[in-house]
């Protein structure tokens, strides 16, 4: 298994993987397969290789098959462009428990660290999704809040746990002195 940055040529596999994710891991995502299956190809290309550079996606390949992915979404807004959002984390059931999720997340973290303007990553995870919470906690993400009844799933309303991770390696108390801006 190897981890790469996805390009527009991976769009068909990426679309298929995400539609599978929305179908098989319904509670983990805010979007549904029904909503997303009619999106044009340009929607998926924007997710993995946004020409304006506002997102980047990583893929785990087993031979030629895309078996896992995660993406980062950036902002151009001056007040929040120091944060990137981790979205669309999914590993096919047959490839789970082998470290693909951790390797994808590490790829995203390392990419984010290479961008001097980024200071932190944020994400949300559905409460009770233990494999995902473990994955993020292992990578240094910390919980900073819980939104009750954040999503309506087939099994009822579920809360979303908000997590963040600083990309800075210097003490927070001194961070203002080293602001890359
Ligand atoms: C969450 C997910 C991406 C993890 O992918 P993965 O490739 O299995 O992850 P890894 O093999 O790198 O394992 C990561 C950690 O999760 C733990 N884990 C895996 N399955 C687990 C389970 N069923 N219960 C508890 N922990 C579990 C592993 O033990 C590992 O921790 P460790 O290294 O301390 O042992 C995968 O389960 C998945 O795609 N789930 C459905 C979609 C989803 O929930 N996405 C997250 C949206 S926020």
Report on the architecture of this protein.
The protein is α+β, with helices and mostly antiparallel strands and 181 residues long. Helices cover 28% and strands 33% of the residues. The protein has 5 helices and 7 strands, in the order E-H-H-H-E-E-E-H-E-H-E-E. The protein has a 7-stranded mixed beta sheet with strand order 1-2-3-4-5-7-6, sandwiched between helices. Helix 1 (11-24) packs across helix 3. The mean pLDDT is 93.
> How much β-strand is present in the residues?
25-35%
Query: What's the total count of β strands?
Result: 7
Mean pLDDT: 93
End-to-end span in angstroms? Answer: 37 Å
Overall form: globular
Residue runs with pLDDT of under 50 for 5 or more positions: none
Number of helices: 5
List the ions, cofactors and other small molecules found in this model. Answer: coenzyme A
Task: State the helical fraction.
Answer: 25-40%
- Strand numbers in spatial order across the main sheet: 1-2-3-4-5-7-6
CA-atom Rg in angstroms: 16 Å
Note the main sheet.
7 strands, mixed
Order of helices and strands: EHHHEEEHEHEE
> How does the helix and strand content classify structurally?
alpha+beta
């Amino acid at each position: 298994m190897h981890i790469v940055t996805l390009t527009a040529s991976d769009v068909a596999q990426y679309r298929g993987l995400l539609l599978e994710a929305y179908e098989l891991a319904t509670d983990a995502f805010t979007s549904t397969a029904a909503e997303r299956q009619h999106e044009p190809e340009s929607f998926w290309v924007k997710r993995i290789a946004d020409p304006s550079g506002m997102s980047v996606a990583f893929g785990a390949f087993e031979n030629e098959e895309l078996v896992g992915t995660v993406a980062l979404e950036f902002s151009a807004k001056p007040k929040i462009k120091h944060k990137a959002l981790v979205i669309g984390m999914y590993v096919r059931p047959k490839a789970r428990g082998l470290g693909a999720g951790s390797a994808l997340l590490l790829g995203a973290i390392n990419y984010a660290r290479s961008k001097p303007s980024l200071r932190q990553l944020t994400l949300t995870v559905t409460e009770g999704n233990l494999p995902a919470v473990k994955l993020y906690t292992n990578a240094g993400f910390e919980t900073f809040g819980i939104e009750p009844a954040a999503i309506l799933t087939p099994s009822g309303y579920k809360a979303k746990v908000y997590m963040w991770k600083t990309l800075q390696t210097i003490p927070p108390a001194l961070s203002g002195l080293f602001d890359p801006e």
